Amino acid sequence: MKNTFGNNISVTLFGESHGEVIGAVLDGLAPGVRIDEEYIKHELEKRKPRGNISTARRESDEAKIVSGVFEGVSTGAPIAVLMENTNTKSKDYSLFKDVPRPSHADYTAEIKYGGYQDYRGGGHFSARLTAPLVAVGAILRLALKNKGILIGTHIKSLHGIYDRDFMDLEADISMLDDKIFPTLSNESEERMIKEISEAKERGDSVGGVLECAVYGLPAGVGEPWFDSLESTLSHALFSVPGVKGVEFGLGFGFSEKFGSEANDPFYTNGEKIFTKTNNNGGINGGISNGMPVVFRVAIKPTPSIYIEQESVSLSRMENTVLKIDGRHDPAIIHRARAVVDSVTAIAIADAIATAFGTQFFGG
Amino acid sequence: MKNTFGNNISVTLFGESHGEVIGAVLDGLAPGVRIDEEYIKHELEKRKPRGNISTARRESDEAKIVSGVFEGVSTGAPIAVLMENTNTKSKDYSLFKDVPRPSHADYTAEIKYGGYQDYRGGGHFSARLTAPLVAVGAILRLALKNKGILIGTHIKSLHGIYDRDFMDLEADISMLDDKIFPTLSNESEERMIKEISEAKERGDSVGGVLECAVYGLPAGVGEPWFDSLESTLSHALFSVPGVKGVEFGLGFGFSEKFGSEANDPFYTNGEKIFTKTNNNGGINGGISNGMPVVFRVAIKPTPSIYIEQESVSLSRMENTVLKIDGRHDPAIIHRARAVVDSVTAIAIADAIATAFGTQFFGG
Amino acid sequence: MKNTFGNNISVTLFGESHGEVIGAVLDGLAPGVRIDEEYIKHELEKRKPRGNISTARRESDEAKIVSGVFEGVSTGAPIAVLMENTNTKSKDYSLFKDVPRPSHADYTAEIKYGGYQDYRGGGHFSARLTAPLVAVGAILRLALKNKGILIGTHIKSLHGIYDRDFMDLEADISMLDDKIFPTLSNESEERMIKEISEAKERGDSVGGVLECAVYGLPAGVGEPWFDSLESTLSHALFSVPGVKGVEFGLGFGFSEKFGSEANDPFYTNGEKIFTKTNNNGGINGGISNGMPVVFRVAIKPTPSIYIEQESVSLSRMENTVLKIDGRHDPAIIHRARAVVDSVTAIAIADAIATAFGTQFFGG
Amino acid sequence: MKNTFGNNISVTLFGESHGEVIGAVLDGLAPGVRIDEEYIKHELEKRKPRGNISTARRESDEAKIVSGVFEGVSTGAPIAVLMENTNTKSKDYSLFKDVPRPSHADYTAEIKYGGYQDYRGGGHFSARLTAPLVAVGAILRLALKNKGILIGTHIKSLHGIYDRDFMDLEADISMLDDKIFPTLSNESEERMIKEISEAKERGDSVGGVLECAVYGLPAGVGEPWFDSLESTLSHALFSVPGVKGVEFGLGFGFSEKFGSEANDPFYTNGEKIFTKTNNNGGINGGISNGMPVVFRVAIKPTPSIYIEQESVSLSRMENTVLKIDGRHDPAIIHRARAVVDSVTAIAIADAIATAFGTQFFGG
């Protein structure tokens, strides 16, 4: 189903960039789970544009829970989260209906929806819709945390600048949880922000790679074949605007290794089973093996740049040049972090509910 | 659903490596589509182990269609394809129930299924099950071909050896269709086979990267958000054993580019719209834009190697050393090509059926 | 999925009787369909409590469309409809958490949700949620009407009082569309209202049977086996609170007939195929045959009555007597009509989208 | 999905009346469930045509389990059941492609599948496909029985002849389990068989009403709104050929009752909660309340009768008269009992898996 994800825990998304209200409906969360509105705010803060390196559009981003929560606790009924659009400037966008922005959804939306789509601000395709996604993701992230399952994401690389690797996952995830610009090293943070600022100066944009770790996931989550944990996670991740690649563990790096180098040897301390390396990113045969689930997500540079670009006037079927005004991000990777955390929480929660029953999260 | 993929065109998979019969049920194909059993055989040939660089297990791989086809044409009812297992040697595998092979599904299956799984030959996790997947994929590949949509996959790289890039897609795909070892350049074929043979000599294995192109797909296929074309394709691709990464267009390479380099400018010849580059791999906003859909798939080295490995005896909870006998592939990437072609056909056909109705394929 | 219905056209429902906002998300409607807010109001009027024979709770019932509609026309994106709860009196209901109302959801909700449910006014189980269901159903009813497919429902019987049969379906459906109390005969209307009023006097309630006809549905809608048109319709109908029976055509009356009496003979006027009788209610083998689809729906008497009833105190595990105050309907069957019309529209629209593609409804 | 039912426990059906093999794939059953092939045979016996009152087509009805079972126990992988068609007489049926049998699927299949369907013996619509449905249903019925949940169905009425009511459910279900012709009273059995025989003499057929009870189902199964237990059960039941009505508890009888008569008062013995009556058939608000789930299913008379009927030649678009030869049942209600038991088991098992997790059935 187009705007619904998940089998036992599901999320339905609706809204447009310039509509009155956007929102998401989270269904399947067990009753009795404490809902912390402060935590939702905390997560939305990470997604907010801020400072010099983001769009000038500033939304209050207040998430209002209108159902499924009673006296601060989930009831078992669907949780609907609504967010109002307040800071909309519709006049900025009307051009793109005729002259589509390269690498954006303008053209495919025009083709698919026969010209009936709400083109203002990207309409239903706008990354604005990731705000309610972050809100419901935050609910699940906290529900997972309460069961000892932690999710954290950092910017692994940005235009040739690399962050340090994950080391102590619990500490690293805890640190990332408090950072607005999500790197593990302060030096990479500075260099990356500088790179983004410089791109902005030139009216250009940059992409990068996010790396996400899920710590504490029990073995046995994920299904053979079509609902492998990789399938479920990648399905969710590729629904995030700008994501163009997903790799687990060594991922594409496997092609440089022999089996003898790539395999993760098992060992035991007599009580639990571990692997010495984690080249498989915590997943064997589509099922979690108890090691951290680690994957990387490629984020393309924001397509809305201020530099002149070649495009086409659809009405006149003529080649033309496009010069974009308006408010756009020179990079979304730092903001996309919160979205990756969220869809990861959604996918992991659904996979757990399928493997162990929705009761797993119960109060 | 665990062993079922797809919404409007779906595939359900069943069987085990050492069971009597394995098979797949394809539902949703429009009536009136000619079913060519020769083409199914042709595709199964590509998946077959052969020569020096594959497992010694040789199956007849005869796919029997037992429903949904009448007088050579699809009826609209589900198409069930059955394949018998004939060449099974169960004694080879009993060890792995206690001492799991590193990076294989042995351990996670033991945990998930509480010791009840059929452990012989990998049981339900065996790559043997990709045979019926190739059979039903072949049916859809041909149905797509009849509508001008061509799918082709080559080995892009194998342990540092690179094939040439796609050039003339129609010609390249046609050439690949006739090749058992799927490279575009004969030189890379030779070098890759040599690399695999050498790994085999040492009892080791290699992985690599497959690159797939879908040519002729109309614009407008794929949905916003959760059923983006990338989501649907990656969901299917990550269900293939050994796949650990999927990237579209530039994929992870986007992180090295500025937006001004990465964006695909539109142009027109007055009749149709094209993009000058195809860095987005034919997909914008989750929807096909009419350019070829191009993606790469990372395949890890086969985990079953003959070199001694560290593992654990689950019954004794002791560290131990594992030495594998039996019949294993030093590389599966060339055989996996047929599987990638097939799941791509399944995912694309389902996305088309959702976008345009199942009638699209009708006779 | 619990609160989502439909495959290609789907509805997701959320909210509680005493929450701030209730709503529904309609996904899969083709772009270009004119959305008539007046028609939505018109349908909501039919569901509204009014006069002497309904609850005293009066809601403004204003349905606000916040997404998926642009310049009065569907965009192809999900259509979210929100309705505020304004007239809530929470104090009326707190008793039922401990002493459940017989035949109501109070007890099963308490068991299922472990005491975390929002018990006020029936919470998520409240028939109040049928309001947004009617709103999205109205959108689809109109979309169907634009394609010549008409849906109409009358009260076939109410506590021994029978309405006349459908005769001229187009005329009858048109008449019903304008009636608040949906009978075909004015005499039955008067007698039924009198019966309800008398039950109300005694603090009692009555149920009845609704009969629904779908006129103009083309042959070929519905699938063999699990998505038979009867399966899809009954699935939707049994989700309506109070529905306890569904029968198609002769339904339970078939048990009194021989095949020779029950079969519907085919005939032709040389251009089209008809059946002489319509005992099968327009459906053969789970698929529409081009004749009107006709079914009946049993609605039980409203369980909330003012007469003393035996119940149990769950906290004390003691038998007790329950005396209900508050605002309740002595009959909901006339209001349920609009809900049956709506879920019928949803189920039929989804079945059409599956059979013919979502384009069927396109603008 | 057309030929797949269920969310967490699912069944996929395939095959045609005159194809080589028919079958079903059962997915989602927990590992460790003992599979009793004798019980499957026992259930298939009940569905078999026999004696004077059934079709002369006799199939061996041997169900072969080819996957998902290892050493007599479920593995957690999909269970595929195959059955060969051996006794097929294709020449009997070719007429119906041009001159459809009234009230049969011949006409709608022709319209829907554009003439490509396998028309022999009803093709994919043939009740022959209920055989594998009974086989997989038997697996789930036994799994339910092992958890204390019993399912039993009797012929409540057949052309004006009524069986006695359920009394002691455990004893009655146990008795029905051993009966080929499923009545609770021997006198009704005799009279019903006589009625069927007399109809057969005249070349006619009869229908009737089945009544099914599910005993021992815990409270809390079923979901609010769209996956109400009634929705799930009716969805499955209406997929059985010939079913035209489903009612729970009093069902259509509710229309004759006041709320004060219809409501089921709660009472307690200090340990458990019961209802004094069970007019709601064990379901409140779509969720099981711990009382037996009781419902009735209307089965229409077999449409294939030997008496001349009016029909149409589709090729000539002319009215004509149809005289059927071949092998047909004068009644299927006694055989349909096993199918109703089976789809009930499937629907109940899926609802339990959704409510309590698939582990519920675990070994």
Quick overview of this protein structure:
4 copies of one chain form a homotetramer. In chain A, 28% of the residues lie in helices and 21% in strands.
Features:
homotetramer; 363 residues; Chorismate synthase, AroC fold; 5-stranded antiparallel β-sheet; globular
Helices, strands, pairings?
4 copies of one chain form a homotetramer.
Chain A: E1 4-5, E2 10-14, E3 21-27, H1 37-47, E4 64-65, E5 69-70, E6 73-74, E7 79-84, H2 95-98, H3 106-112, H4 130-145, E8 150-158, E9 161-162, H5 169-177, H6 186-201, E10 208-215, H7 229-237, E11 243-248, H8 259-262, E12 266-268, E13 273-275, E14 283-284, E15 287-288, E16 293-299, E17 309-313, E18 318-322, H9 333-356
Antiparallel strand pairs in A: 1-2, 2-3, 3-7, 4-7, 5-6, 8-9, 8-10, 10-16, 11-16, 12-13, 14-15, 17-18
Helix pairs in contact in A: 1-4, 1-9, 4-9, 7-9
Structure description:
The structure is a homotetramer of 363-residue chains. In chain A, the strands form six sheets. A five-stranded antiparallel β-sheet of chain A has the order 1-2-3-7-4, covered by helices on one side. Chain A has a single domain, classed as Chorismate synthase AroC (Chorismate synthase, AroC fold). In chain A, helix 4 crosses helix 9. Chain A is of the alpha+beta class and 363 residues long. The model of chain A has no long low-confidence stretch (mean pLDDT 94). In chain A, 28% of the residues lie in helices and 21% in strands. Chains in contact: A-B, A-C, A-D, B-C, B-D, C-D. Chains A and B meet through strand 1, helix 3, helix 7, strand 11 and helix 8 of A and strand 1, helix 3, helix 7, strand 11 and helix 8 of B. Strand 11 (243-248) of chain A pairs antiparallel with strand 11 of chain B.
